[in-house]
Structures are given as structure tokens and as C-alpha cells.
Write a structure and sequence with these properties.
The protein is an alpha/beta fold. Helix content is about 25%, strand content about 25%. Helix 2 packs across helix 3.
Amino acid sequence: MISCGKQRPQDESLEQCNSVYYWRTDFRLDSTERAFLAHYNIKKVYCRYFDVVMGDSSTGPRPNATISFSESLPDGIETIPTIYITEDCMHKPHKDLAEKIVQRIRQMNETNNIYNVREIQIDCDYTSRSRKTYYKFLEDVCEKWRSAEGRLLPKGRKKEGSGNRFVSTTIRLHQLSMPVPPVDYGVLMVYNTGDPRKWQERNPILDYRDVYPYLEHLDQYALPLAVAYPVYLWIRNIQNVRIEHSVDASEILKVKNAMEKERPNLSRSIITYHLETDNINRYKTETYEEIYRH
């Protein structure tokens, strides 16, 4: 891993592993989900802890939709607290926002006996308008996370140094043309690539034709990258008609192969979005094995 604020393009600095996102408001796993974690040797779960949204002018950013933990992850799987921040929160700086978020993560870990959390992730669809404010915010998050008191550990276990702590952020395709953010690595989100208003022309979740123009940026993007692929179903009502969007396995693999041709080491760290029994059952075992192929 590299330290916050120092950028290196070698994806070898990322651990080779399989991961998933967990994006529900109650952490609870059924037998199918537990079997999935074991079968595909999942090592990390990027777990959405809460959102940060804009309140009124007097309150500023505030937490929303906080997760509850009905149970814990199986032993040997690392929890990555993930915080989604709406882009309008970054239209101007907010004093102590980074510190409040880090404190809230630590409190949630302690309350729910979540041990050895060494990494957090910030998810924001930043734009050219919000980028500078967001990058400064990320620098503050790095500082607060690294300097925070030792992680909660089971009684009798030795504390580890704060130098083992990491911060990552999500990267949308359109952000590949921007300067890299000051974090340890990015997760390239290869979904929601199309215009949802043009759903009759292209799949708004993922279509190779929407990804293709960004491929030229991959090789030179000077930040280690993991990559996340969509396995979810998006249901919408359009003019009182139920419309279901999902992605064919062939399209996911077509995009994956094209991206790894431009940047081969993208195969080191693979994430699927997101962990849910219906999503697991949507694809054959062979498809998941191909997605998670290194």
C-alpha cells in the first residue's frame, strides 16, 4: 500500500483478493450469502455504514440511513466501513466533517464489537466543481483516521500501529480524466455507466459502448485501482410500467476483459456490487468464477 497523498500507478500495491459490497441497512446474512463468501474466498466486505447528506443551512451535512448489525461477518473476513457522501456536501468546506465521520465509524465499530478495522472508504460522485473541496476533505480523513487512537481489539490482544491504516475512495469513469485523489487506492465503479433516461437504447447499469471511451485513461491513471462490477437488479416505474434493469453475464465479462487488456493488473482486486441472495442466484457459478478470475 502507499500512503495518503502519495500516488503510484502500480496496482501490485493492492492486495490480491475477492471482495463484495454490502449495501443494506441491516447487516444480516442468510445461508446462501454465507456460502457465497466461503465459496469465492471473499476476504473483504465493503460495508456501507451510513450516508452523509446535506441538511438545512444551519445544520450542514448530517448522517442518514445508518446500518444496524444484527450479526457479524464470519471470521477471517475484513470489514471496510464505507461512507457515501452526496456531492452537494462538497460544494464548500465543512469544519470538522472528517473528524466527525471518523469518530462515528469508530463508535459504531466499538458498539458492534467490530475488530481490527484498518481501512475505510469514502464514496462520492464528485465533479469538477466539488473536486478540490473533496480532495481536501480526503486529506483530512486520512489524517484523522491515521492519528486516531488504536483500534478496538479483543481483550489481551496487542495493538497494531496506526501506520497500517488505509483510506480508499470510489472512482467513476468520468473521474478518470481528473487528477488523482490523495488516497491509498481507488475503486473503479464500473456500473451506472449510462443515461437512465435513454434506457431503451442502452442498459443504464452497464453497456460496453459507454465504457469504451474511458478505456484510454486506464493505463495512465496514476493511482492503484481495484474494480467493482454490477450484479444487481434495478427496478423502476416508468409511466406506470415496471421496468427491470440487469446486466447479462456476457456484457460484464466483455467489459472486464477490455479493461484488463488496457490495465492487466485490474484483475488483482475484484469487487461485486452487491451481496444479496437474489443477486447471487442471478448468475451461474461459472460467471462469478470468471468475474473473480485473477
